[in-house]
Amino acid sequence: MSVAAVVLLLVARPRVRGLSPAAWRGVVLYGVAMAAMNVLFYQAVARIPLGVAVTLEFLGPLAVAAAAARGWTRALPVVTLAGVALVAGGGGITDAWGLVFGLGAAVAFAGYTVLAGKVGEETGGLSGLALSVTVGALVLSPFQVAAAPSLTSADVLPLVLSGLLGVALAFSMDFLAVRLSSARVVGTLFAVDPVMGALVAAVMLGQVLAPAVLLGIVVVIASGALTIWRGTASEPAPEPTPGPVPAPLPPS
After folding, report:
1. Which residue in 61, 101, 227, 232 could disulfide with 43, CB within 3.0 to 4.6 Å?
2. pTM
């Protein structure tokens, strides 16, 4: 988080003056959500397979979409829970604390999903992101100070890369994707995360998942993507803002 904060502050050069109290509240809450999401996710990955941890974390944005679901899409969260049951029952979750941390990361991811658009609108995109990541780094500073003496030279490169790729670049891409497309599209694309997690775990970490776990991941992805897509598609379109009334033409 600290590495990402330094990079984003240099790139975005955010202005701290002129932000409303509501904007600052969003920045702080967003930073806390990011800090919690990162810590809880890494704690989950340390205990359960990567693909399973990402699947649990994906339940966060899925829950946000399910809360706004209408009609027949309200039944889809039940299908998603069945997929999670397959993941757990197929040997994907072998550590109770891994499950707790994974679900905690999902709660933080839900907060991240809700706050991302609001912070972007109120602070101007990457400026708000840079401030929020800085807040997250400050929140985690007591843990950073305690862990600093145990760092070795071999830890520096992975630490820097995880800050650049896992926080600064990833969160910046989320912001830009929402602004270029829509929350519906980006939310649905989050469903790709469990697949990528499982593939990376299999190729780079040698974590081969049982067929039941893979089936559960597919069920979670499919039902989650459909829930997010239908939930946001059913939202009423915003009413157009009336423009200024043109002045009457002078008499000829």
Report:
1. 101
2. 0.77
